[in-house]
Structure formats: structure tokens, C-alpha cells
Amino acid sequence: MAGTFRTALKLTGLAILAIVCIQLHISINKPWYRYKLMRLQILTFLQTIMSYGSYYLYRTYKISSLWKKFAVITIVLTHVSFFAQYMFISDNPSFITIVPFLAFGCHVFMCLGTLCADIGTFLFIPFTMKISVAYQKFKLNFVPVCAIILTLWSYINTVLPPQHSTVHVPINGLDPKLNNLHIIHLSDIHVGPTTGKVFVDWLVNEVNTYNPDAVVITGDLVDSSVKNLRNAVWNLKNLKSKYGTFYVTGNHEYYTNDVDNWLNYLRDQLGLITLHNQHHVINEGNASLCFAGIDDIQAEKMSYTDHSPDPVTATEGCPDETPIIMLAHQPKAAKLTIKSLPRVDLVLSGHTHGGQFFPVHIPVYLANPYFAGLYKVSPDTHVYVSRGLRFYGAPTRFLSYPEFTSVYLVSSQPQP
Known about the structure:
By secondary structure, the protein is of the alpha/beta class. It has 13 helices and 12 strands. The chain has a 6-stranded mixed sheet, covered by helices on one side. Helix 1 (2-27) runs antiparallel to helix 2 (31-61) and helix 3 (65-87) packs across helix 4 (95-124). Mean pLDDT is 87; it is low at 1-5 and 22-28.
């Protein structure tokens, strides 16, 4: 046992050293290998974490002839999953990518269930050995069955249509002509290895049925290059709204190493209004509203010299006294925006997925200033964080359901 613990510590030390060295290289700003280094960093971190869980599961279930085989298959597919996402990209997800990621979700649920059961076993120690043996047998059969059920349940939650949420946000100084302006907020679509053209086509048709005044996409639209996914997102050009579709980058656009091509493609080919630290003013008679958008904060971490979140630049030129709606992918960027600007009326964000599946909720909640839903930051400033439309990694949603949101801007001024 002591030898195993020492080996685990050595592996952890090597993994941390590798991640730190890779991050140092990324910060040197070598664009030609930045993407590969980021991939290596992510894979090193994930494989290290998953290895602990895999070792734990194998040690637990190797004594069961039935569940040992299941555990081994789950472990192998889990470690393959994050390689598959880089190797098998097409217009629609395939069996080759869905199954390994489902195994990854089951891997997580089995690890958590086994840990809880082992805590229960420890609590049974003061009782007779007969009870402990019976409990051990119960654990070896009950936990895998529960993990399978939770995985399938969570997967079904991703297959069913996302929830449609509605929020009304009071905007100080909003002209009555723009009262009840309807924005459809989309976030975290993650077109790539597990989401494809079929979902995008459905989403476009669904959004159009609500006849919105504007559509906003707050990042993490794609998980691969324009070359791989141009056809999958093509139908976004058919989103219909009075004032257009606004888009800002998320952290995953920078992971593709193709962010500039995506901005050009979405703007020039699909007709989206891309906000690259920019703004766009809409007018209704003499009434106006400023939509602004900033780059994701991940750009700075990956040393994109021409990309970084700059709320001041993004809003420079917005007419005085005009309400500002800021698009900022991460809640941390929302907080940066509020600190940087003397006025921002509403920030629309995503990124958190509402935790996606328990217990990821806990670290995600602790790591972000805003987690999910509508926040009143001050009397005149609100932040809305979408739980997102899809998922990253495991196609699972447990205690966090996917959503798209109708945001209605409510004027505080009386109608004429």
C-alpha cells in the first residue's frame, strides 16, 4: 500500500511538472505550436486524474467476475475518449466518439458511488464481520448498476430538447420604444465530436419559432476548425431576428487554434455580427441600445496578442445614456466588465454549464463569481449566466438541464 502511494505521488509530481512546463511554453507565444501544447496539457491533466479513478475501480472490482470485465472496458474507453475527440470529427457525431464519452460519464459515477460505498463500509466496521461481508457483496453489485442507470438517465437529458427559460430584466433608461425587446440567448453549443449538424438545424428552427428581436451566442460554439465543421454550423445563417445574431468567442474557440478563421467565417459567410471587443448599436426611431462583446479571457492565457477581453474598447463609441448589453462568455469576464465600466446594464454569459453533472457543480460554483441564472449585482446591473445548450466531454446532464433563454428587456420608463 505504501509503495502504491509513493508511486502515485511520483506520477502526480511528473504530471504537475509537465503541465507547468507546457504552460510556460504556451506563454512564450509560439503560435505554430500553441495548439498542440494546449492539447498536450489538457490530455496530461485529464489522463492523470482519470488514472487514479481507474486504479481505484480496478482494485475494487477485480474480485467480481462479472463487474471486473465491465470495469476494464469502462476504463479503457474512458482513457480513449479524449483522444477520439481530436481524431474523429464530422458533420454529425458518430458511435466512435459517443460511446467512449458515455464510458467516461459512467467512470465518474462509478468512482463516486464506490467512494460513498467504501465510506459506508468503514462505518460498518464496528459491527459483525457477517454484516461487513454482506455489505461488500451488495456494494459490488449495487454501485455499477446505479452508475449505468445514472449514465443513461444523464444521456437522455442531453438527447431531449433543451428547456426554454424566460427572464425579464429591468433596464434603467431603456426607451419605451424598446420595451420588452426579446433576446434569445444561446451558449455553449459545442459543435464537434458529440454535437453536429442535426442539432444545429433543430436549434435554428426552434429559435425562429419565437420570432426574437435579437439572437446572441455567448461563446463555445465549436470544438474544432472551420475546415472540419463549416457544414455543421452552416444553418446558423438562417437564424431570423429583427436586429441580427450577435456572437462572441468562448474559451473553446481558442482551443481550436482557428479562432480568426471562425470569426471571418461566421461574419462573412453566415452573416453573424461578430463582436471582437466591439459593439453594435441598434436603433428604433430615436431610441437606441448598444450590444457590446469582448474576447474570452482564455485568449490572454494562450498568448493571443490580438485577442484579450477589453470592455472599455468594446464600448467606446456607444452613445451616451444608451443602455449597454455586454456579451462575455465566462462569468469571470462578466465580473471584469462590471469593474471596468462605469455603466453596464446587463451581462450575458455562459461557460459553467450549470455544473453539467453532479458533483462537478461544486468546483464550478466555487471557481466562478456567478454560477447559473439571473443575478442582480447592483440596482442598475444584472448578470445572466446560461446553463448552456449542450455539454463538454461526457454527454451527460445530471441535476443541471440544458437551456436556451428568452431575455426580455423591461423599460423602467412609462409608456407614452
